[in-house]
Design brief:
Blueprint (H helix, E strand, L loop, with lengths): L1 E8 L5 H15 L5 E6 L2 E7 L13 E2 L5 E5 L6 H7 L8 H12 L12 E6 L4 E6 L8 E4 L3 E5 L2 H7 L7 H9 L14 E2 L4 E6 L8 E2 L3 H6 L7 H16 L6 E4 L4 H12 L7 E8 L4 H7 L2 H8 L5 E7 L6 H8 L12 H13 L4 E3 L4 H5 L4 H8 L3 H13 L6 H18 L11 E3 L14 H9 L2 E3 L3 H9 L2 H16 L3 E3 L5 H9 L2 H4 E2 L2 E2 L1 H6 L6 H4 L9 H20 L10 H6 L8 H21 L1
Parallel strand pairs: 13-14, 13-16, 14-15, 16-19
Antiparallel strand pairs: 1-3, 1-9, 2-3, 4-5, 5-6, 6-7, 7-11, 8-9, 8-10, 11-12, 17-18, 20-21
């Protein structure tokens, strides 16, 4: 993690006041030899590298242009740097900050969308008083900014902003979003006076004529349009290997990779192993869960799939055995809330943490992770809805029966209800005023009754209720909606904080736009075929997978700890809220939460909402008491 900040004095701000603020800021944060500061009367630039990862080209510097008029602050990793070096005939030893400055000078902001890898950076042109800032499409690295009457503050760290100015007011709509697990990509934080760049946004402003309204440099539709080749299995395999190799080339460290025994993690682990031309140590990490009953253990156990990968590779494997007493989402809340400026909110974060801790023990600084492989590759289950919309009922029945045979779905009756009966009922209700295709709508759980409406924004509640029923258009539309949602950004922000604590840099191959642009364009008939999910992905990497992985059609369940801890603590926590007159009661309706006590065991949406509420309660106590 490389932390940076730029604090700029406004013209009407008293110079002595500003210098005193800077002095206190430096005293709080600048405490080791990795700190780099450039200061003039009207601003301070700060960069500190906490991470020990060694990029092949890395230098701990604030990069200045040759004329000393421009500098770059960044927390970035450009995975496809070789593409830019070759295209623009640049020096192989160019650093990422220097590459950012060079590309901006050559082609302006059009290069933002061409970068592969996580980035958050700021370019300050001191002569023209211009600031340019950008954040990668998925928001893997944060970027925050704040303005008040005395100064502007830009940073990738809320810690830095609060070290300079502790004044704050909570953003109620963001709190409600958090409770509902509805992460809108709105550029807002939990604090009213602090904004953030959304993933895929950039900021350009002249400080003499300030405009802090972000602009979009990339959309999911543009990612889809960027791919124009024909789809075939060899092409996907080529792209997948190219992405992995570009990422390998970014570090000289030992490498780690998650290995659950699923298609995503296995494809990454085996590609790393087979392309380890420098004979580096590659560690693989899997997680098993103790203290489960036999039925639960069988549903969570993936050890045989993991073994099938290890049998054909040279991976150094670590099996992480977790016990119920010291792990789980509620334990994660208690452990992480003191270290988070915003609320901790990743229900399976304790699983990721256990892997990061083992990476630290093995001195592994780089971890490849198959996160979001499900959503990018796509299981193809939306094809069933497409078939029903097109009234192709023969193929629909054929696919449902084969999915049941492969144990991908467990109820043929439910599939017929969803894809036959409900659309017909919806169509009949409209009395034929809409087309049959418009009858396909997805309903979501409405939890609006659990928040305190006395202090909630009525417009926010109305907007939330309107999203409980959404129209289905196509498989690719659902894929693009997810990739553009704030869910991805939220998860990545949280995992970035967790991994940074252990000095682990995460590489997510399935978030490389080269892979995504290919996958979005794959027709649903190649995603689900003959009852086989992820059909094109399996066929593309068929020679890579052991037979046991290639023939795997089901996923394990790693949510038993979460379900058990929430069921055991639900009523107890509500009683404690009431007994202690907890601050959380300002935001939630306790009576409605009590009413859900009998349903919590079988209502995943409510389990997740309770996890968020409990995390908020700890956060409010920790940060504001």
């Amino acid at each position: 993690m490389s932390t940076f900040s730029l604090i700029i004095k406004k013209n009407n701000c008293d110079s002595l006041f500003f210098q005193n603020k800077l002095r206190k800021f430096k005293y709080k944060l600048v405490n080791n030899k990795r700190s780099l500061i450039y200061q003039e009367e009207s601003f301070l630039a700060y960069q500190e590298n906490f991470n020990r990862i060694k990029y092949s080209d890395h230098k701990d510097i604030i990069y200045f242009s040759q004329n000393k008029e421009t500098f770059v602050l960044c927390d970035s990793r450009i995975d496809n740097r070789n593409y830019f070096i070759k295209k623009y005939e640049l020096d192989n030893k160019i650093t990422d900050p220097e590459l950012i400055a060079t590309l901006y000078k050559k082609i302006g902001n059009s290069f933002f969308s061409k970068i592969e890898g996580p980035f958050s950076f700021l370019i300050y042109d001191m002569k023209r008083n211009n600031i340019v800032a950008a954040r990668d499409f998925f928001g893997q690295r944060p970027f925050y900014y704040k303005e008040n009457r005395n100064y502007y503050c830009f940073s990738n760290s809320l810690d830095c902003i609060f070290s300079f100015d502790t004044s704050t007011e909570l953003n109620l709509n963001k709190i409600n979003q958090f409770i509902f697990n509805e992460y809108l990509k709105d550029g807002k934080t939990f604090f009213k006076n602090i904004s953030k760049l959304r993933g895929g946004d950039y900021l350009f402003t002249n400080l003499d004529n300030i405009d802090l309204e972000p602009k979009k440099f990339l959309t999911a539709q543009e990612i889809q349009n960027s791919y124009s080749n024909n789809h075939n299995t060899k092409e996907f395999k080529k792209i997948f290997q190219e992405v992995i190799m570009d990422m390998i080339g970014r570090t000289n460290n030992s490498i780690g990779t998650t290995l659950s025994g699923g298609l995503d993690s296995s494809s990454i682990a085996l590609t790393l192993d087979q392309n380890n031309h420098s004979n580096r140590e590659i560690f693989s990490y899997s997680v098993t869960f103790k203290d489960l009953n036999e039925k639960e253990f069988l549903k969570s156990d993936e050890s045989e799939y993991v073994k099938s990968v290890l049998n054909i590779s040279n991976l150094i494997h670590r099996n992480i055995s977790l016990g119920y007493k010291n792990n789980g989402p509620i334990i994660g809340i208690k452990n992480n809330t003191p270290n988070f400026i915003e609320p901790y909110g990743v229900i399976n974060g304790y699983v990721h943490e256990s892997i990061y801790e083992n990476c630290e023990s093995d001195n592994v600084k780089v971890l490849f992770d198959g996160l979001f492989g499900d959503e990018v590759i796509s299981h193809g289950m939306y094809r069933l809805t497409e078939l029903s919309m097109k009234k192709n009922f023969v193929v629909l029945v054929y696919e449902i029966l084969l999915l049941r045979l492969r144990k991908v779905v467990f109820s043929i009756k439910n599939q017929f209800k969803v894809h036959f009966i409900l659309p017909i009922i919806n169509y009949i209700k409209t009395c034929g005023k809409t087309s049959y295709k418009d009858s396909f709508k997805f309903s979501k759980v409405d939890l609006s009754n659990i928040i305190n409406k006395d202090i909630s924004d009525s417009c926010f509640i109305k907007d939330y209720k309107n999203t409980r029923l959404t129209k289905f258009i196509s498989d690719e539309d659902e894929q693009k909606k997810f990739l553009s949602s704030g869910i991805v950004e939220h998860a990545l922000e949280q995992l970035y904080l967790l991994s940074s604590k252990k000095n682990v840099e995460c590489f997510y191959p399935f978030l490389d736009k080269r892979i995504i642009s290919y996958c979005i364009n794959v027709p649903s008939s190649e995603k689900l075929k003959h009852g086989i999910t992820r059909y094109y992905f399996r066929e593309s990497l068929k020679e890579l997978f052991p037979k046991r992985i290639y023939k795997r059609y089901t996923k394990s369940n790693i949510g038993f700890y979460a379900k058990k801890q929430i069921n055991e603590n639900y009523k107890l926590c509500l009683d404690n809220f009431d007994k202690n007159n907890s601050e959380i009661l300002r935001y939630v309706n306790l009576d409605e939460l009590y009413k859900m006590n009998d349903d919590i065991e079988h209502n995943y949406a409510m389990q997740l909402a309770f996890f968020q509420i409990l995390s908020l309660d700890h956060w409010l106590k920790n940060k504001f008491n």
